[in-house]
Amino acid sequence: MQESIRVLTSQLDKCNVAGSADKSPHQQEVHIPENSQLQIPKETLANERSQTPMSQLELIPGDIIPNSQTLEKILDYSDQLLQSLMLWPFAIIHNDQEDRGIFCNRDKIFDALKSRDIGLASKCLIWTSLLLSQLPKDFKDAETGLPLCPEKFIDRILTQVSILYLADCTPACSIDSIEALVLQYELFVAIGRPSTAWKCIRAGIENALLLGLHLRPSLLWDALWIRDRQMSLIIGLPYGTLNMDVQTTELDTLRKIGLVSGFISDRDRLRQDTPFSIMQSIVEGMKELKIMIPDEWAEADLNLAFSPIEHAIMRLYKHKLNIMIHLPYSQFAGYDKQFEYTRVEVLESAEGALDAHGDIRSLQEKPLRCDLYDFLAFNAALVLFVDLVAKETPRTIEEEDHIWTVIMEFVSRLRKTGEVLGEQAADVLDDLYAAYKGRYQGPCKVTTIPQFGRLTVSRDSTQTTIELESSVYTFRVPDETGKELIDDWTEIDSSGTYGWRGIYTFDDAPGLPI
Asked: Which of UniProt's keywords are assigned here (predicted)?
């Protein structure tokens, strides 16, 4: 079996090389966006560097955050954030329930801004922007009754924190500033900017190394390296930390997710040269994760471990990892029965990911924005579609109806988010469903999906053709990861090449207007 995997992986790698050969030198360049902390005009940076850290605090505008009454209203609305994984490790660092989450009341926020501590002020500002990111679009200013426009506050806060970071990072920033980077990571994950989130966590790692946090037990270091492994795998980049021992029992599950993520990244990078030890670590790690994160937990056990929403989030990550492990091999199941079990694993986890996403959404008293969760589930829905239309693995009508019910229920949840990513993902799935049913009447179009691939929809007089291209089936590290999930997918450059392609043609339904 190991030799078969090695041969198939070698074949996939050759496909990647062939796919890359047609690219121009310009297209092969890797373009990385500027660090989010540094996206400020150069003349502004020069002026800010010439000022002392204390003067930076004095220059923070008084209206950088909402007024006192509105802030109180925001805190009341956003109380469920205290129960989410977004706050880890801060919920563990602060054992006092009143301090859980860093800044839980209005006075603490304003006191932090008035302090002479750059790191504390940065952490306060990013925490406030994270709260702002969770507000509904019709949220109003408590004093004026006008729409609050949280995006404008978030942009201003990020600019200010960039300036404070530069003032605090010579040669290494403070612990508070590193915690602010972790919170900034969570903010960018929530608003659909995973590449920028990855850069925040890398900046945190650099500063933590300079402070020696990796040399001693540190919850903050644990937060950094686990997130580094997770996000590096998702966007297809090498992780930057060694395997670390985590002594805290509460982190065992998250640590295992981080370790397995790293092993999968190693396999995807090494491809046919992956040693058996890494493959064995992947298999054993996934077995342990399935035990640590069962799909069904007794209520008594759940209360002792995680909140229901935390359990659902970790189920989503578990199923995403299992899909990534088996997906490259599952495409051979139609030709070689020894790979059928990989197809079964992929399909079970794809449905499991959508079920977990449904629980995440249903357990929220108020809509919690996290574009990454929506996108991971969207990827699972695309995997289900590809298997559904594959001629090598035909399904019964009942099975087809079940899969489409699961997918279209997910589409409904995406629409309810009202976010750019949710709308774009729902549009893609609606187009696929319409084509499958022979009812697509939209225009021919090309959609480039960041972190996945490209979808081309074309029509002739009686048929719709769907062409899906992706690298998730072939271990291929993406050529460019600078595009964010919230970008306009129809405007992204569509000239890239991918290691896998599927073409599916659907006849128009009888009576469809020409």
From this structure: Nucleus, Transcription, Transcription regulation
Strands 445-449 and 463-470: unpaired
Domain that holds residue 119: 40-235
- 74: exposed, middle or buried (Cβ count in 10 Å: 0-12, 13-18, 19+): buried
Inside any domain, residue 446 = no
Residue 219 clears pLDDT 80, i.e. is over it = yes
pLDDT in tens, 306-315: 778 888 999 9
Longest dimension (CA), the chain: 73
Helices 150-168, 175-190: axis angle to 10 degrees equals 150
3-state secondary structure of 475: coil
Closest to 31 (Cα-Cα) out of 479, 494, 472, 489: 479
Under a CB-based contact definition with an 8 Å cutoff, are residues 368 and 134 in contact? yes
**Residue 468 resides in a domain:** no
> Could you give the strand order of the β-sheet that contains 445-449, starting from the edge strand earlier in sequence?
445-449, 453-459, 463-470, 500-507
In the chain, the number of structural domains is 1
Instruction: Give the pLDDT confidence score for residue 9 in this predicted structure.
Output: 62
Q: What would the DSSP string read from start to end of 401-467? A: HHHHHHHHHHHHHHHHH--HHHHHHHHHHHHHHHHHTT---S--EEEEETTTEEEEEEE-SSEEEEE
Confirm if 293 and 260 have CB atoms less than 8 A apart: no
Task: Give tens-digit pLDDT for 267-307.
Answer: 999 988 999 999 999 999 999 999 999 998 766 565 566 77
* In a domain? residue 99: yes
Mean pLDDT for the chain? 83
Range list of H helices, 298-419: 299-305, 308-330, 340-362, 371-389, 397-417
Distance of CA 295 to the CA centre of its chain: 21
Q: Which two tokens stand for residue 197?
A: 């989130």
Please report whether residue 83 resides in a domain: yes
